[in-house]
Amino acid sequence: MIRDISLQDLFLSVEKEPHTIIDVRSPSEYREATIPGSINIPVFTDEERAEIGTLYKQVGKETATERGLEIFSAKLPSFIQQFKKIETPMTVFCWRGGMRSKTAATVLDLMGIQANRLSGGIRTYRQWVVKELEKEAFPPRFIVLNGYTGSGKTALLNRLASTGFPIINLEQLAGHRGSIFGQIGREPNNQKKFDSLLIHELQKKKDKPFVYIEGESKRIGKVLIPAFLFDKKKNGIHVFIHLPIEERVKNILADYNPWNAGDKFIEAFNLIKRRIHVPIAKEIEEKLHKGEFKGAVTLLLENYYDPRYEYSTTKHPQENDFVIYADSVDDAYEQLLKLDFTSEKLKSKKAANH
Q: Which CATH architecture has domain 3-131?
C-alpha cells in the first residue's frame, strides 16, 4: 500500500534513522534542483520526458500516457533492481507528487518494496525553503574571514570545520569561488539549489553562538546571498588576514591547478582584460598562453584583484576588528585560534549594531 507523507514527516524520518530520498524526475530536473542528499532514479530520461510532453501538447493526454507506460514498462526490471539495492526506508518524489512518483511507488509496492511518496513533491519542498528564508532568522553571530585573493580563507574554513568549529562555506554551496575564474573546476549551482543547501546549513548551525564565514560579495557566481545574511555579515566580527604575495600565489595555483584547466583561464581572463592597463594585460595574456601561471597570477593580483579589494575595504574600515599578519595559512590558523571573540569591545559593538 502506498503511503503519502508530509515534508515535516520526511524530515523527522531522516533525523530518526538512515533514510534514502529518491528523486524520480529526469536527470536534468534533478541537476537543476533537488532535495539535498537525495539520489536520482528517473522514471524517464530527458529525451523520453520531452517526447511524452510533445505528445501531450500535440495529440492529447491519453496518447501521452500510453506512450509513457510503454517506455516505462520496457525499463521496469532495471528500475526495480536499483531500488532493491537500497537497504534503508525510502521516500520517492517528483515535481508535484503526481504521476511519476505515484507510478514508481505503485510498481515498488507490487514488488513488495515499501516506499513512501512525498505529498506535493519537490514543489512543496521549494515552498518550505522560500518561507524559511523569508523568516530571516539566524541568531548566531558571524566571524568573517577577510583577506586579499589567495589568503587561504577557504582553507581556514575547512580547517576550522575539521576541528569542530561551526562554519558556513558559501562558495562551496554556490559551487563557485566568487572570482571571474571561480567556476574553473567547479559546477556552479543555480539559486534554487543554493537556497536549498543554504537553509539546511543555517538550520544545523542556528543554536551556535558564533559561525565562521568568508567575506563575500552579494553575488557568488550565479547566486545571490539573501539580504539579511549579507547584512549580518557586514555587522559581524571581522578578521583581516595578511599573507605575503608569494604565499598567496602558491595558494591560488594549488587551488586552481591551472595546468589542467585547458583554455579556461584565458577565456576567463578575456572577460576582465579591458579593465587592466594595456601593457600589463598583454603581458598577462602572453604568460597564460605560455603556461607561465605563477607570473600571470602575480600580475593579476598586483594589477587587478588587490586594487579592487583595497577599494572595497576602505569603504568600511571599521569592520576589520582583528588583523592577522601571517607567513602561511598554518600560521594564520594558529593565530586565529588565539583570538578572543567574547571581549567587552565586541559585545559593545554588537549592541551598537542592533
A: 3-Layer(aba) Sandwich (3.40)
